From TrEMBL:
It comes from Flavobacterium supellecticarium. It holds the Pfam family KH_NusA_1st. The keyword Cytoplasm applies. Residues 6-125 form the Transcription factor NusA N-terminal domain. Participates in both transcription termination and antitermination. The gene is nusA. One of its GO terms (cellular component) is cytosol. Belongs to the NusA family. This is Transcription termination/antitermination protein NusA. Its main location: cytoplasm. Residues 284-344 form the NusA-like second KH domain. Monomer. Binds directly to the core enzyme of the DNA-dependent RNA polymerase and to nascent RNA.
């Protein structure tokens, strides 16, 4: 009865943990063999028969019969007189099989058995979990917010697995509440002790690439290839795409009619501005496309230094650099070249131009700095821009921009 009761107790784990029958039998046998080794010094001469479905188990010890007084190993040998107490017709050299009841192992050993089983099942679960999520690295995964911590959001999936979304892997505009569904990619699985820690990311370039696969059928089907993705999470991204079918316009297919296809991706990424660019192996053309929306006049490449001088008309410079320098930075990352903007323009105008720093007595330093961030560091470079465009590209109010324009116009009127 003791054997059956214990196995019934162990069988509970099978239902709770959804462990298959073969795995449970292997774990149980391993646990019992460890207990036998501790009790008898070796488990080599023991047969363990387990049937967790029926809730029964048998342990048999096999010993060789030796003459009385010649027993050297109590575990593997039995004297003739002891053997004949079991069966009167045993002879020297024969093998005796005798059932071992769990109660013979002692109460402490039985408690240790249960604890060891729990440990082995947890170890099995953790190993399976590690393997499962290791195979999911780089894939999009959805989980629910369990609780929000200052340095991370803890998510739980449908199977109760805990996933960590660290603060630095979140898009700056991300804001989560308990119960929210969150999408990201499984970026890494780390072992903390014996327990796997699953790390999710929403800032990875791979996340944006996988969103393209998920949202754009031609990318999913392989008709369009995502060649490279670069991002400043939550701000701006550039995606180079290509198609081996000349009938397919990869940029048009990715963006969709009036941006219908890419709109969902932009919304998922906290309104991140995404430029989709036609990939080409022609470096000059690729650099020109990468600097979109600016119109580039010409490009001079230095292959040795992996750099390029990009010539632009004055009114295109701010577009090429972009707000906070994001556009030119991403264009450089996308193409693999260090890009240097060279202004073209009317020579008389340039001679007549004035550095913005010359107005520091009338315009505050932080305002001058805001214009410099988008590549506007002279009076005429600002006066050649549209007011609405200046407001959109900087962190300045329209009132401030209009005041700066008034001051600059007065300079040229004088």
């Amino acid at each position: 009865m003791e054997n059956i009761a214990l196995i019934e107790s162990f069988s509970e784990f099978k239902d709770d943990k959804l462990i298959d029958r073969v795995t449970l039998m292997a774990i149980l046998e391993d646990v019992f063999r460890n207990a036998l080794k501790k009790k008898y010094g070796s488990d080599d001469n023991f047969d363990i028969i387990i049937n967790p479905d029926k809730g029964d188990m048998e342990i048999w010890r096999n010993r060789v019969v030796v003459a009385d007084g010649e027993v050297e190993d109590q575990n593997s040998e039995i004297s003739l007189s002891e053997a004949r107490k079991i069966e009167p017709d045993f002879e020297v050299g024969e093998e005796v099989s005798e059932e071992v009841k769990l109660i013979q192992l002692g109460r402490r050993a039985i408690l240790a058995l249960r604890q060891n089983l729990i440990s082995k099942i947890h170890e099995h679960d953790n190993t399976n979990l590690y393997k499962q999520f290791k195979d999911l690295i780089g894939d999009i995964y959805t989980a629910e917010v369990h609780h929000v911590r200052p340095k991370a959001v803890i998510l739980v999936d449908d199977e109760g697995n805990e996933i960590v979304l660290p603060k630095e892997k979140q898009i700056p505009s991300d804001f989560f509440r308990k119960g929210d569904n969150v999408r990201g990619i499984i970026e890494n699985v780390e072992l903390k002790g014996n327990k796997p820690q699953i790390i999710m990311s929403r800032t990875s370039e791979k996340f944006l690439e996988k969103l393209f696969e998920q949202e754009i059928p031609e990318v999913f089907d392989g008709l369009i290839t995502v060649k490279k993705v670069v991002r400043i999470p939550g701000e701006k991204a550039k995606v180079a795409v290509d198609s081996y079918d000349d009938r397919i316009d990869p940029v048009g297919a990715c963006v969709g009619m009036k941006g219908s296809r890419i709109h969902g991706i932009v919304r998922e990424l906290g309104n991140e501005n995404i430029d989709v660019i036609n990939y080409t192996s022609n470096t000059q053309l690729f650099i020109t496309r990468a600097l979109s929306p600016a119109k580039v006049s010409s490009v001079k490449i230095d292959e040795e230094k992996k750099s390029a001088e990009v010539f632009l008309k004055l009114e295109e410079v701010s577009k090429a650099i972009g707000r906070g320098g994001h556009n030119i930075k991403l264009a450089g990352l996308l193409t693999g070249y260090e890009l240097d903007v060279i202004r073209e323009g009317n020579t008389l105008e340039e001679e007549d131009d004035v550095e913005l720093t010359e107005f520091s007595d009338e315009i505050e330093g932080w305002v001058i700095e805001e214009f410099a961030k988008i590549g506007l560091d002279t009076a005429r470079s600002i006066l050649n821009q549209d007011v609405a465009d200046l407001v959109r590209r900087t962190d300045l109010e329209e009132e401030t921009v209009l005041e700066v324009i008034r001051i600059l116009k007065e300079e040229f009127e004088d």
